[in-house]
């Protein structure tokens, strides 16, 4: 996870969802496998393993961007994305999506301390809203953003910078960013963040320390 250098108390906290505040437990990989099978990729085949390895290596990236790389044409990428969303929605309906321990409390502490919290994701708006609804998190953050809201997803800093613009935050030096994947880290660093944490639950205490 990344946060800004502790020289200015952050007023804006941008948090990833799956893997950072929301438990993943292989849900993305399972939904991808179902989507790939719908597009004719045989489970257990070398092609399937190669594509799954790419999904693992690009966790945090916009899912439609991943599918464009894997399936070549826009039509196939959109079919794969639609199949992925259906599969993931089924997991949500089954109750497989849960918050990570301490995540909701951490978000509450951050907001109680007067900080603005924004949740970001590599999923589409449809899937992001479904996750928020499944967890009862529709009002947990001040703002939620997906790649389509910003123009580009991770590893670009666009969602972080969009969060800055939409919340009226004065400077990138006022932002803390937290995520669990290499792409989360890269987008945070590109937006000016540089600190490592073990869990999002540690974030409120760290930010209180920067204010001291």
From TrEMBL:
tRNA processing found in the keyword field: no
Keywords per UniProt: Hydrolase
Biological processes per GO annotation: DNA repair
Any single GO CC term annotated in Swiss-Prot or TrEMBL for this entry: cytosol
Stretches that traverse the bilayer: none
InterPro entries in UniProt: HAD-like_hydrolase_sf, HAD-like_sf, HAD_sf
GO function term, MF aspect, one: phosphoglycolate phosphatase activity
Highest taxon listed in the record's lineage: Bacteria
Signal peptide: none
PANTHER family reported in the protein's UniProt record: PHOSPHOGLYCOLATE PHOSPHATASE (PTHR43434), PHOSPHONOACETALDEHYDE HYDROLASE (PTHR43434:SF19)
Official protein name in the record: HAD hydrolase-like protein
Source organism: Streptantibioticus silvisoli
């Amino acid at each position: 996870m990344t946060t800004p250098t502790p020289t200015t108390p952050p007023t804006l906290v941008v948090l990833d969802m799956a893997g950072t505040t929301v438990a993943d437990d292989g849900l993305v990989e399972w939904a991808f496998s179902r989507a790939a099978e719908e597009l004719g990729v045989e489970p257990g085949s070398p092609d399937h393993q190669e594509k799954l390895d790419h999904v693992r290596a690009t966790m945090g990236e916009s899912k439609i961007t991943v599918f464009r790389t894997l399936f070549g044409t826009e039509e196939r990428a959109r079919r794969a994305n639609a199949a992925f969303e259906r599969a993931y929605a089924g997991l949500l309906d089954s109750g497989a999506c849960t918050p990570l321990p301490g995540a909701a409390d951490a978000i509450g502490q951050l907001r109680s301390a007067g900080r603005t919290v924004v949740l970001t994701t590599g999923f589409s708006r449809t899937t992001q809203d479904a996750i928020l609804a499944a967890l009862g998190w529709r009002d947990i953050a001040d703002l939620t953003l997906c790649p389509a809201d910003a123009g580009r997803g991770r590893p670009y800093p666009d969602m972080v910078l969009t969060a800055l613009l939409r919340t009226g935050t004065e400077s990138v030096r006022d932002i803390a960013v937290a995520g669990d994947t290499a792409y989360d880290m890269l987008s945070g660093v590109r937006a000016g963040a540089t600190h490592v944490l073990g869990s999002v639950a540690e974030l409120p205490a760290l930010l209180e320390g920067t204010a001291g």
